[in-house]
Write a structure and sequence with these properties.
Low-confidence stretches: 12-34
Helix content: 40-55%
Oligomer: single chain
Structural class: mainly alpha
Mean pLDDT: 83
Radius of gyration: 21 Å
Largest sheet: 2 strands, antiparallel
């Protein structure tokens, strides 16, 4: 009875909350907030966290970068600066040892968890999840650091899971031909920060950014992952779609790819102008 009362109370709260904020927020923003709230209700862990004040429920979204996750968790668990830095770890190239391994998932953890412990929990979840994929491929010939870097780009570039393997195939083609990847997501990673946003819009001037993550200026992959990908993106990185395409863009969440620059430019003129 108490459990059902909680469900009724939460739904009543959502209705009142949604009505009040819909007056001031764009409808699309409201729908996103409501969708996230309803999604939370589908997880048993959500109710367990309500019943146990010593437990907190957190959801990490696919494609977030380490600093972005750290900022969110720091506010959630009231970490001090030291604990936040411990969560992020340290290494050259923006802690490449850890970026990409903060697995996006639902977590049920102690409300008193420290930064270093949370990092270990997320890294362990990554190792457990990745093992399900590794068992299906010949991992002895696979460089998982490379796979993670490709997967992180796919995660940020894809409009959805349906085009991830195609983008993976395009990345493979460009790398095999010695072409620059020219992926905007890597520029966003290079210029992103807390003040201006972690994934700011890209303009033509950004192609001259002096950064090892600038895949317009530098050939090959960036030195480390640019985000923390989910299983679908990692699977796509391991299983690229066979394609002749070298170029692509999105329009209304639909991907248009081309084998030549002339064809690519024609499609841009046709669909984007």
């Amino acid at each position: 009875m108490r459990f059902h009362f909680k469900i009724i109370f939460i739904f009543a709260f959502l209705v009142v909350f949604g009505y009040s904020i819909s007056l001031s927020l764009h409808n699309r923003t409201f729908v996103k907030i409501l969708a996230d709230a309803i999604d939370n209700l589908s997880h048993p862990e959500f109710y367990e966290s309500l019943a146990n004040p010593a437990i907190k429920y957190v959801k990490i979204t696919e494609g977030m970068r380490k600093e972005e996750i750290a900022l969110m968790l720091s506010a959630r668990f009231y970490w001090n600066a030291s604990s936040t830095e411990e969560f992020k770890g340290y290494d050259e190239y923006r802690d490449k040892k850890f970026e990409g391994k903060y697995f996006p998932d639902v977590y049920l953890v102690s409300r008193y968890i420290t930064g270093v412990d949370m990092k270990e929990v997320m890294n362990e979840r990554f190792e457990k999840k990745i093992s399900t994929i590794e068992s299906s491929v010949a991992t002895s010939t696979v460089n998982m650091d490379r796979v993670l870097t490709i997967a992180s780009i796919i995660q940020r570039e894809a409009a959805g899971k349906s085009d991830m393997k195609l983008i993976s195939g395009i990345i493979k083609n460009r790398l095999s031909k010695g072409m620059s990847l020219q992926m905007d997501a890597t520029l966003q990673y290079a210029k992103g920060n807390e003040e201006n946003g972690w994934w700011p819009p890209v303009d033509p001037r950004d192609k001259k950014i002096n950064s090892p993550y600038n895949t317009y200026q530098n050939k090959g992959l960036p030195p480390s992952p640019i985000a923390n990908p989910g299983l679908a993106a990692i699977s796509a990185a391991l299983n690229p779609q066979k394609t002749s395409c070298l170029f692509y863009f999105h329009k209304d969440s639909k991907i248009y790819c081309s084998a030549t620059y002339a064809e690519h430019k024609h499609k841009i003129d046709l669909y984007l102008k």
